[in-house]
Design goal:
It is built from 5 helices and 2 strands. Helices cover 36% and strands 3% of the residues. With 124 residues, it is mainly alpha-helical.
Length: 124
């Protein structure tokens, strides 16, 4: 939790920020005891995944979480289907978890490894 280090400009005057107060004051409550989020194993898993999605939204880990959970195929193809309604470049795209799960190794790295590294069969 960091402290605010900026000033707020009002239409009439400059207001100073109280440097002793936290920059963000979030009020977070735990799930209620009878919440549907924990009524079953599947619902609890969905709740945890949603919490991780919200908490780490800008961290760049979403793809790796989807892949770890084994749901990258469904989630990414559903996204492509919805997004292609608005973006022409997404039309006809498809996420293939076998081919798109890992990037290919650069040919230059394969050349200098002298046979130690081998290319992912999905890219051959």
């Amino acid at each position: 939790m960091g402290l605010c280090t900026t000033y707020i400009f009002d239409a009439d005057h400059l207001m100073e920020v109280d440097w002793d107060q936290p920059a963000a004051n979030y009020y977070i409550e735990p799930y209620p005891a009878n919440a549907d989020a924990f009524s079953s194993k599947e619902e609890a898993r969905k709740a945890v995944r949603l919490e991780l999605r919200l908490e780490f939204a800008t961290e760049g880990d979403r793809f790796f979480q989807l892949r770890r959970w084994g749901i990258s195929d469904k989630v990414l193809n559903d996204f492509i289907t919805e997004d292609s309604k608005f973006r022409i470049l997404m039309r006809g795209a498809h996420y293939d978890p076998v081919k798109n799960d890992y990037w290919p190794l650069p040919q230059s790295e394969l050349d200098i490894s002298e046979g130690v590294l081998t290319q992912d069969p999905a890219y051959l």
